From TrEMBL, chains A, D:
Recorded superkingdom: Bacteria
Residue stretches making up the Glucose-1-phosphate adenylyltransferase/Bifunctional protein GlmU-like C-terminal hexapeptide domain: 285-355
Name of this protein: Glucose-1-phosphate adenylyltransferase
Family (UniProt): Belongs to the bacterial/plant glucose-1-phosphate adenylyltransferase family.
Nucleotidyl transferase domain location: 17-148
Keyword Nucleotidyltransferase: yes
GO BP terms in the entry: glycogen biosynthetic process
From TrEMBL, chains B, C:
Protein name, per record: Glucose-1-phosphate adenylyltransferase
Gene3D superfamilies for this protein: Hexapeptide repeat proteins (2.160.10.10), Spore Coat Polysaccharide Biosynthesis Protein SpsA, Chain A (3.90.550.10)
CDD domains in alphabetical order: ADP_Glucose_PP (cd02508), LbH_G1P_AT_C (cd04651)
Enzyme class: transferase
Ranges of residues in domain Glucose-1-phosphate adenylyltransferase/Bifunctional protein GlmU-like C-terminal hexapeptide: 290-361
Enzyme nomenclature, EC number: 2.7.7.27
Organism of origin: Peribacillus loiseleuriae
InterPro entries tied to this protein: ADP-Glc_PPase (IPR011831), ADP_Glu_pyroP_CS (IPR005836), GlgC_bac (IPR023049), GlmU/GlgC-like_hexapep (IPR056818), NTP_transferase_dom (IPR005835), Nucleotide-diphossugar_trans (IPR029044), Trimer_LpxA-like_sf (IPR011004)
Record flagged with keyword Ion transport: no
Subunit architecture: Homotetramer.
Positions annotated to bind alpha-D-glucose 1-phosphate: Y100, G165, E180, K181, S191
Length: 368, 389, 389, 368
């Protein structure tokens, strides 16, 4: 879609994932054996032929920058358009809201000839067809289109979701900010389609009035004099808002049917290429019901687990119901169950590490 | 525009007829290897790691797959502003196109391409060997020896020596004689098909050889003997390490099996010398609850429900339930049904193997079974057991 | 791998014999233009700005220069992971290579290349026009009209109409008739050599046309009339703006002069539609104390001591003292001595003009003087006045 | 040279160039019609086939990052090696010296297989053949080779140069830090060749001891137990340490012989490609003894001046003995003499702006 800018908005990210987000932003959290959360949105943009993508980062964005690089893997290293990483311009100040940061980079919008903007967060695991959503937006002559989904996630103990009241004709009647949704509630996915000129107008007007929140001050406050329409997203979408829901949604991909439809039957998910060799299974390896990524060297036992790139599981080690992130090494005779190990963790030999219904997290580069 | 110290010319024109059905519709260097790579990835990655950033790939047969695969050269870091990788099919003169008449003629036809970079040295490589080699050490040796041409050699067992082109050398490793597959070997130093030349010298010999009506236009048969006969300074560079010609079904299969040793003859996962491959984006592999995988290499994109022993699965291979694969190589995008048995076989890309098929033999004396291109072999769906070969 | 909405096939095979010495050793699309560009930069840049990221460049004659120039496609933003620009010489079948027999045959021979991207639409372009065109508007029009093929047309003066391929259309701009250079034009809508096809339709016609022994395998002469004859939905897309065929010396010179108007017919410096060029790194131009430059375009890399009026100097042109250049086009790397006079001329690349040379005529009736390739014309150094042509 | 890392060290930069360095670092200052100062060192690395280049930035490095981008123009957008921009890791702290920042990025050195490092500042206008210097270094079996030149610059009113005492055999006997050199003194060019392992050792040892200056604590302090050799650079090299010397060295390139030998007779200087059209001269233009870069549109009079890319000089405007940086616009009837206008300056019509022997500077994006 030549006329569309993709915006990945990390400004509103919360650090739901505790230790996993202590040194990286939410969108940079590893997921599904070889991805980072942001890969899904990036790949959805690639699929929709949106070749100009701006990532508005907030804090701890270094790993996102390392991961995205020049955008090569998403074919976004382009002179025309391509990938723009737009960090906060005043790192020391408290950021007041996404509109403030859009305002700091208003020139990006002003200079772009495209007429439509798709705004999405960077941590959604889903395959959203932005082409279809933009078509829906244009066909309905909406000023703004919001994307929502019927809530079907694990119950939320903090009021972090926004509930939409949708009229029969699809128009948004009301937005209730910061709620704990019930099953079936129409929950906003922080994804919007908007005309670029209108977005610029909202950015300017709101910031002049000291209002800095796009959803609250730009959308909700304008519900009556703008045509705010909705798109009902019905595809796969895990609500990730806690370690527990993060763990479960990873584990869901051990369902081969979900893995098949999500990874293979639709478009590709692109991620950073690392040129690892295929997984090496030794004569003693025993792997069942698991996802394994390249560069791994497996001599031990792996059950119901997700093994990221470059992990070594030594002879006699047992990994059960666990997530082992990239470059982890699990030594001889060690037993892990219900554990999430962050990157580059080293579990020495003959250890026993067991989590409970909420998995135990071993922090990045820890040696246990 | 600056000139280049050295560039590489990669002979990728081999039709690979000894690989049979594996090369139908595919040049030999494009044959998949190691679950993830194509043969050409090995010399290309070696070039990158050796600091060579300009590689001409001389193609002949079926260049489209290679063209698309090599693309802009990015996976091998060969997407350079000046230089990089170029696929060079035979040149179309005003009188229409001509095939490359031999390896030397292929380079001869691209003299203009090479001169564009004005290199001091030209490295000539083959596209059908699996090895990890730092060519910059060979260059260093070449310079130190003040050689005009250097041939990389590897010691082979005396018993096999007569299958190779052999170098007889003096104590300084200066080459005194070159024998192509002699019945009675005087040396066990076999040519690896890796030649380094002073470009000025090579150019002169290419031009002369082109005019020689009796020449077969081949590096091994014509150029090297002529250089040697003229008393030029020709040295053997001894390479130590893994090197394997994968020009036959048996050697291709054998090279794959070498990857599966406990301490593999050849390590694909050396972090300091990664082998690059195109099309490297696939989902993680899914290993089901019924699967059993031992002593194998399995690439991303695979879905495995069966038993895999001492085998290699390339990307996007699906293996059904109760299927047993042993001592075999499965190339990309192969779908294998349930209750299949595969032994000592190579299954080419894009094949679909129906349920209950039995492929290959467990007899140690049997040849390697090759199941060729999808277009050539069709499996009729059947509830009966179907036996192939 | 995803499919592409559309890709472009750029016919760059023209030998450009009407450009005479300017195309010796050079395919027409590689001819320098505008002081900085080559002709092919215009369609390639148009593709990039129109959102087309996959372009097959069909070459025939002298592909080496184009190959090196196009390189990895980076200057045009066409260094893509999937797609990008590919130079496609005639395919070498097992029986040796064949020339492209015509424009349609050239695309026919690359059906496999196109199918690799599985495009919905294919845009066919020529490599010998100077224009700035947003092809995406043409695509929008094509879709809106539910056309199966769309031909871009431009209104030409009735007096010149008979030099072009002309479209007769109904009030909806549906094409009812196509006439190649008719003596008595019924229309002044000339084909710009820019065709947009539904790929499925085009593929079918290419395959049929290939089997037609009487066909000349040409888009204008064979494919379009056949599509029209079959009553397919064929529309004319009216382009407004600058468009010039630069296939003759006069038109090439004229298109250059158009750049020099006060409000130029064609603006090279539109910040929203930059034209990309390879090899764009040169030092700033040096204009000496004696120089006098008016109404001219002068590229970086030039050193000017003389008088330049209403002319174009490409990169790395040196102009000596007391030299006067008027109404002329100087191509790259030309060294011009002192006391030279050049009028109404095109000087090809890499030429060296000795002191006191007089080139061209100031007579308005005179033809444009072309000084061709360095290899063809040699200037003997002389203290005498030398007069050329 | 496969075995060499290039380091461009911006940590020791001073803001000699007043207003021109108020919003950019010294190495990002425009020079010679279409370059930034850093282009010269970058291109010298390209020429020497050094394909792994690390730029250690200090402050105000945004324009350097924009300029260098992914390194494409220098063919340094590589997976193996290529361009590394290594900014200060603690932006809030005062940086104590270059060794501290090398230490913060010690992993860069540790991970590199190369055995030799060339360190150079980023603001030298010269064509230094690093291949020759490295060969000299290796042939002489030196531990460190320093590059010096006989001082021939404008006299310096601040003690900013380091003077070397060189023995007959080329060894460095003494280093006098922070001096105002006389003509002919051996002045260090802050350019070094050193074995990587030795560099790492110096970084570690010095930082442990609270010493953070490479030249003082790493080289000078070790003169007696390391073999510190010298390379006598004799090529073109302007000492730029003030607006006045900056101005003069720009103007030197109006000497066609210098321009010829510097720009054409040796290797190319690469800079960011901007795809501008050739210079357009109108029927009223009058340009003499000037350097002009592409994208300019010249209707007025230009004399003895340097005109950067994308400058517009309108009818009747006169620009004399001046430097007009990129995208400046000089309107009808305006007269400039002895002026340096920074980027994107707009001089409205009928103005008169005249500098004296020290040129007047018009600041970036100013409207006069």
């Amino acid at each position: 879609m030549d006329n569309v800018i993709g915006v990945i908005n990390l400004v509103n990210e919360k650090q739901y994932l505790k230790e996993l987000t202590s040194h990286r932003c939410l969108s940079a959290v590893p997921f599904g054996g070889r991805y980072r959360l942001i890969d899904f949105t990036m790949s959805n943009f690639v699929h929709a032929d949106i070749t100009k993508v701006a990532v508005f980062t907030k804090e701890k964005y270094r790993s996102i920058m390392d991961h995205l690089g020049s955008g090569k893997e998403w074919d976004l290293d382009r002179r025309n358009g391509g990938l723009f990483i737009l960090p906060p311009t005043h790192p020391d100040e408290l950021i007041k809201g996404d509109l403030q940061q859009f305002h700091d980079h208003i020139e990006f919008f002003n200079r772009s000839p495209e007429d439509t903007v798709v705004i999405s967060p960077g941590h959604h695991v889903c395959k959203m067809d932005f082409q279809e959503i933009v078509d829906h937006h244009k066909d309905s002559c909406a000023d703004i289109t919001v994307v929502y989904k019927d809530f079907d996630g694990e119950s939320v103990d903090k009021p972090i979701y926004h509930k939409y009241s949708i009229q029969n004709d699809g128009r948004v009647k009301n937005i209730e900010l910061y709620t704990s949704p019930e099953q079936g509630d129409s929950v906003g996915l922080e994804t919007f389609v908007i005309k670029k000129d209108l977005l610029i107008e909202i950015i300017k007007t709101c910031c002049e009035n000291g209002e800095y929140d796009f959803l609250k001050d730009g959308v909700k406050a304008n519900l009556h004099h703008l045509k705010v329409n909705s798109y009902h997203y019905k595809g796969y979408f895990p609500f990730i808002h806690s370690i527990s829901s993060y763990y479960k949604s990873n584990m869901e991909f051990l369902n081969p049917e979900l893995a098949q439809t999500f990874f293979y039957d639709t478009w590709d998910i692109y991620t950073k290429i690392k040129h690892e060799a295929p997984v090496k299974y030794s004569i003693t390896s025993k792997v069942t019901n698991s996802l394994v990524a390249n560069g791994c060297d497996i001599e031990g036992t792996v059950e119901n687990s997700i093994i990221f790139r470059g992990v070594k599981i030594r002879k006699g080690a047992v990994v059960k119901n666990s997530i082992i992130m990239q470059k982890g090494e699990i030594h001889e005779g060690t037993y892990l169950e219900n554990v999430i190990t962050d990157k580059q963790v080293n579990i020495t030999s003959e250890q026993v590490v067991i989590g409970d219904s909420i998995p135990r997290i071993v922090k990045k580069a820890d040696v246990v | 525009m600056k000139s280049k110290k050295w560039i590489a010319m990669l002979l990728a024109g081999g039709q690979g007829s000894r690989l049979g059905e594996l090369t139908t519709g595919l040049a030999k260097p494009a044959v998949p290897f190691g679950g993830k790579y194509r043969i050409i990835d090995f010399p290309l990655s070696n070039c990158t790691h050796s600091g060579i950033d300009t590689v001409g790939v001389l193609t002949q047969y079926q260049p489209l797959v290679l063209n698309h695969y090599v693309g802009n050269g990015r996976p091998w870091d060969l997407d350079r502003n000046f230089g990089g990788v170029s696929v060079l099919p035979p040149y179309q003169g005003k009188d229409g196109g001509e095939w490359y008449a031999g390896t030397a003629n292929a380079v001869y036809q691209n003299i203009q391409y090479i001169d564009h970079y004005d290199p001091e040295y030209v490295l000539v490589l083959s596209g059908d060997h699996i090895y990890k080699m730092d060519y910059s050490r060979m260059l260093k040796y070449h310079v130190e020896k003040k050689a005009q041409a250097t041939i990389a050699v590897i010691e082979v067992p005396w018993s096999e020596a007569s299958r190779f082109g052999l170098m007889n050398t003096d104590e300084e490793d200066k080459i005194s004689e070159f024998e192509e597959k002699p019945a009675k070997p005087k040396s066990n130093l076999a040519s690896m098909g890796v030649y380094l030349f002073d470009w000025k010298l090579l150019k002169q010999y290419l031009i002369e050889d082109e005019l020689d009506a009796f020449s077969t236009k081949d590096f091994g048969k014509d150029i090297i003997p002529k250089i040697l006969g003229d008393g030029k300074s020709l040295y053997a560079y001894r390479f130590e390490g893994y090197w394997k010609d994968v020009g036959t079904v048996e050697s291709l299969w054998g090279a794959h099996m070498d990857l599966l040793d406990d301490v593999p003859g050849f390590d694909l996962n050396d972090p300091h010398w990664k082998f690059y491959a195109g099309n490297a984006n696939h989902a993680p592999q899914y290993i089901s609850a019924e699967a059993n995988i031992t002593q194998s290499l399995v690439n991303e994109g695979c879905i495995v429900h069966g038993t895999i022993n001492h085998s290699i699965l390339s990307y996007n291979v699906h293996v059904g339930k109760n299927t047993i694969i042993k001592d075999s190589v499965i190339m990309p995008n192969v779908k294998i049904g349930n209750n299949v048995t595969i032994n000592n076989a190579i299954i080419a890309s894009d094949i679909c193997i129906e349920d209950y098929a039995e492929i290959g033999s467990t007899s140690p004396a049997a040849e390697i079974t090759v199941i060729g291109d999808a277009e050539n072999i069709s499996y009729v769906a059947t509830n009966e057991k179907s036996r192939i070969k």
